[in-house]
Write a structure and sequence with these properties.
alpha+beta, 11 helices, 8 strands, about 50% helix, about 10% strand, elongated, ATP-binding, nucleotide metabolism
């Protein structure tokens, strides 16, 4: 059975946000923060913006898409009750960052997006907080909603293992969804599904085996109930809006991935196994060598690959 663990390490390095791109993104983040602080000081000094990096960047699960794009969520926080609508508060952020990029910022439902064409995007969701009440996010053309991104980050940090295996698997799953697209689940959804699955298995030292095990646990959970509950305020279901077509699309893709993952783990030839992984992860997954696994290693791997040594059938 071909061991493709080293190929997954290379794949993670390939989709990870590189130091140069990360450096440019941090410079842009700092420059936008400076513009926002100045704009409010000049126009609405009674509002003092604070900032908190959140989302995948904070959880270290961010990836470069196959279009070489990545993103950063930099939350803007006001610790007072606004006397304007959420749409107006978002509009003030739009005014503050407008002119920094070549194209106008996008006023999206729950953030202002600055687009650095062909490189990265920086989103500014806007929140307020008063004592004794939850954080609330501004929503375009709607009321403020309860939302606590810090709670989500804290939840994920408690799920992480010190070896970084869960982070690597979340990256693999996000890379899969990016490769497939066609309305596959969001990165946040895959982060939640993988973290929940992780609590039901013992993570294997081999990334290929762990990915197969996590995919199976995700399918088992979704077959039981098709939902993805955010483990933080407001605790909404990320799959609530999925119609039957979108649900079938994801579940079919999941079944296909599991089937090929099983085949790859049973395959003796490394090149053949890598092509099965590449079918779902795209061309950025490296091809293996055209060589057979030695027989002694095959016997050692055989029991492990069945899942008997890695699964925790009683869960936690």
């Amino acid at each position: 059975m071909a061991n493709c663990d080293h190929l997954f390490s290379k794949y993670n390095d390939e989709i990870r946000i590189g130091s140069k791109k990360n450096g440019r993104m941090m410079d842009s983040k700092n420059a936008l923060r400076k513009r926002i602080r100045k704009w409010f000081k000049d126009n609405h000094p009674e509002y003092e913006p604070k900032f908190f990096i959140q989302g995948s960047y904070k959880m270290k699960t961010g990836i470069r898409t196959k279009d070489d794009i990545c993103d950063l969520d930099d939350g803007v926080y006001f610790f007072r009750k606004p006397d304007v609508t959420g749409t107006t508060l978002q509009g003030w952020i739009w005014d503050a960052v407008n002119g920094y990029t070549d194209t106008d910022p996008e006023h999206r439902k729950k953030c202002i997006r600055s687009i650095f064409a062909g490189d990265y995007e920086i989103d500014h969701p806007v929140y307020y907080k008063i004592d004794g009440a939850p954080y609330r996010i501004a929503v375009k053309d709607a009321e403020f909603e309860d939302s606590d991104p810090k709670e989500m980050v804290d939840w994920f940090n408690k799920k992480k293992d010190k070896e970084g295996r869960l982070i690597a698997q979340v990256m693999n799953l996000k890379g899969w969804c990016d490769h497939k697209r066609n309305k596959m689940p969001s990165g946040l959804a895959m982060t939640i599904l993988a973290s929940n699955a992780k609590s039901k298995i013992v993570l294997n030292e081999r990334a290929d085996i762990t990915l197969r095990d996590i995919l199976k646990e995700i399918k088992k959970a979704l077959d039981n109930k098709f939902e993805c509950i955010v483990p933080a305020v407001p605790g909404d279901d990320l799959f609530a809006s999925y119609d039957q077509t979108r649900k079938n699309n994801f579940m079919d893709a999941l079944s296909d991935f599991i089937s090929d993952a099983d085949k790859a783990l049973q395959e003796d030839n490394e090149l053949t196994a890598s092509k099965l992984w590449r079918k779902h992860l795209g061309d950025r997954f490296p091809l293996g060598e055209d060589k057979q696994q030695n027989q002694s290693q095959t016997r050692v791997n055989s029991a492990i690959i069945t899942g008997a040594a890695t699964s925790n059938p009683w869960g936690k």
